[in-house]
Amino acid sequence: MQESMRKFIAFLLLAAFIFLSPGCKTSVSADLPVAAQADVPVGERESGGDAAVSEVTELVVLHTNDFHGHPVSFFNYPAPNVGGLPAISTLVRQIRETHENVLLLDAGDLNTGRPESNLFKAEADLIGYNYIGYDAMVLGNHEFDNSPAVLKRQMDLAMFPFLSANVTWKDGSYVAEAPYIIKDFKGLKVGIFGLTIKETEFIGNPYYIGQMLFHDEVQTARRMVAELKDKTHLIIALTHLGLYGSNDRGSRRLAAKVAGIDLIVDGHTHTRLNEPVVVNGTPIVQAWHWGLVVGQGTFTIIEGKKSGFRWESIPINLKRREKKNGKNVFRFVGEQIEEDTRLVSLMQPYVEQVDTLLAKVVGIAEAPFFYGKVRRSETAIGNLVADAMLWYSRHLSPDFAIQNGGGIRADIPDGEIAKKVLYEVLPFDNSVMVVELRGTDVAALFDYIATIPNGKGAFAQVSEGVSFTLDYETGKCENVMINGGPIDPNRTYRIVTNSYMAAGGDGYSVFKRAVSKYDTSAFQRDVVIEYIMHLGGRIVPRVGGRIKIKRARGTTLGTAFSGDAASIVPEGSVARQWD
User: Fold this and answer.
1) CB neighbours of 184 closer than 8 A, spacing ≥ 6?
2) What CATH fold (topology level) applies to the domain 359-565?
């Protein structure tokens, strides 16, 4: 983008931010101990301390999570024009017009999604967040998909703080701008501290997190509550931990083990709820993903004491598909939300550049390639990606290819395939690498695959020529066959994978024992584009018994994420897991 356009956008953003900024003050913590900061008054938590609280006060907490680079409205099978920051902007403005105290939070994973975001390292998203007036965001694991320098530029661009109390550099300083903030709403003081999933030390990009430490979430939270309890009326944990089915993981573990948290605003598992999950008296909320819904929680405070909490999930132009006279029609789920035209204008330069760069049609899909089960079973889209990598590296005589399911992030709809679609399917800047492993390490690779919980991003998708049976009861891979034969412990195998996995990402530490590694320097998405063209431009989704599941064990709440239900709201509570 030209410098003049950047300056123009910056000017508009500043004006918009001043105009839209809520009438509250923010105290941002520096290094602990925070008690030394003179500008943060200390008061009694229930009585309201030294600031008078009106007899009845309400605090509205709006929240998003796992936005994953969806700054403008988009097609989400089967519905067009859902989500987008311009519609969210309108909703937030309407709520602020009717409520005096409004807090707007994001629970992490802003990065890695659509080309309008990826090609500009989330610049469009942050411009939109600034315009809308977010108050804080926690670091999600995908904030480490880019280098620390990129993260620093993102924090500099944001007009709100990035939080995380449990991620530090090895020298002890915080990676985020602060561990917590205190918001002052006309006497009502709210403490917000951030927590990032400790598992990031395994699933984060090893090239970028090598100098970072990820500390235990519960121990850190206890320290944060102790810091904030005498300074605030309410404490909110803004977390990227995940909502699972038991109290021994994620945000449920946090609520079960840490007293004194009034609300957990969570992310990571892309969980869709119709009501909060309550553990140990603490409500936990998530707002699905991609800006498809906005969560709205409302606290009632009477004479300085929390009296009640209610919550709802507001759809952002979601639609149901119905048949009428043999044709598809779409009806809004909830109310239609008009887009903020000023924000649409700010987003337009990014849309136009992407359309120019990625409009070329590279093929035709005879039927949709859904990605919804890439973390659970063999899929046609996983086969396509793995086969493409194997084909591209054929001059190096590889034995097979392997791809982590979590690296595949979108469907390929039926019909014409533009480059833009494949940038959405493979949004990470991962290159194709060829890794040599001894036969014993190849056996260890499949042993590791058997330990991956069904539904996790590390779940393997493999190329043609590989077949195996996953037995989750015994925790073993059985009947592993590579090009018609079992693993030979005495030979060396050449395996094609992506640069993230080759570095040990998603727990594939066996690749660190490689005899040799060769980086083709070709991005995965470009390789898939070339492969589709090599196939004559027409592709058909197929699965062929590469992966058999003998006794699948589920680890999620509710149903598996399904690509063909992404825009449709089923009745009843639904929870979906995604990393």
Assistant:
1) 24, 25, 26, 27, 51, 190
2) 5'-nucleotidase;  domain 2 (3.90.780)
pLDDT single digits (tens) 239-277: 999 999 899 999 999 999 999 999 999 999 889 999 999
Decide if 468 contacts 477 (C-beta within 8 A): yes
Residue-wise over 462-487: b if at least 16 C-beta within 10 A, else e?
Answer: bbebbbbbbbbeeebbeebebeeeeb
- Neighbour-count burial of 226, counting CB atoms closer than 10 A to its CB (0-12 exposed, 13-18 middle, 19+ buried): exposed
Residue 413: strand, helix, or coil: coil
Domain boundaries defined on the chain: 3-341, 359-565
Class of domain 3-341: alpha beta
Neighbours of 439 (CB within 10 A): 16
* Confidence label for 207 from pLDDT (cuts 50, 70 and 90): confident
Q: In a 3-state reduction of DSSP, which class is residue 55?
A: coil
Segment 366-385 mean pLDDT: 96
- Dihedral pair phi/psi, residue 402, rounded to 5°: -140, 140
Please state the separation of Cα 150 from the chain's center in Å. 17
Q: Assign 49 a pLDDT band (cuts: 50, 70, 90).
A: very low
Could you tell me where the DSSP H helices lie in 178-310?
A: 200-203, 206-209, 217-228, 250-257
User: Under a CB-based contact definition with an 8 Å cutoff, are residues 67 and 288 in contact?
Assistant: no
Structure tokens at 386: 């793995």
Residue 428 has pLDDT above 70, yes or no: yes
pLDDT the model gives residue 323: 84
